[in-house]
Amino acid sequence: MGEILIVTGMSGAGKTVCLKHLEDFGFNCIDNLPIGLMNSFLELLLSSRENEQRTALGIDSRNGKELSELEKIIENWREEKKVPFRILFLDASDEVLIQRYKESRRSHPLSKEGRIQDGITKEREKMAFLRKKADLIIDTSRLLTKNLRQQLKEIVQEEKKYQNLQLSILSFGFKYGMPEDLDLLFDLRFLPNPYYDPNLRNHTGEEKEVQDFVFQDGNAQIFLDKLVDLFQFLLPLYVAEGKNQLVLGLACTGGKHRSVTMAEKLYQSLKEHADYGIRLEHRDIKK
To answer: Which PANTHER family match (predicted)?
Structure first.
């Protein structure tokens, strides 16, 4: 029998999109399977010896009262039946979930006639045991659809080891204001500034000419090496503490040259050895 992936999480965090991607990757996807049928479904899979196809089961709070039975089923599958399965929990911040519901003009499944926030609060309580038991947690608060697809591909196709941490590397310019969700911030205004070179002013840190200018005196390389060492030390500690999202800010004056250059270099350096989710965003590069 192929691996079973139980896909669950907060409503609005991207479960439906996730199942579509998994289907593209060769999974047999079943959404909202009644929990009372899970053992029967398992027996069906076990009886089909030639069936090695991987299966994704979508489970969410729409299961209502049956959700309380799921914990026992999971323990039984894992401890007694030794079923090869993993739990993927999709999450997002309350603010992002509220925004998504407002944009879609849909009501939350646990607060049909009430406030969206009330439904989210109830759902977090009901789903807490699943999040605790999850083998994989993906926070989609800052993920584009293509980023989620790439992360899933690395997990289920390339079989990369994945730890429950999403690192977002964000470049920006101080002149346009500070992002509200930063966990760590590094000021890069000590590096050579391409803005003062007329030939580079209208280019960005994504281009080699600008990167060479920023790295010309050797200090940028020293800083990059130390930053890579720092994060290779810090990230396993954050994972051990249960942190699942970390936003790193790299800033210069305008967010177009130095911060973009360093963000690009750090992303490439960390991605080569990453066993966690990592994404790159240049907030002010077009300003």
So the answer is: RNASE ADAPTER PROTEIN RAPZ (PTHR30448)
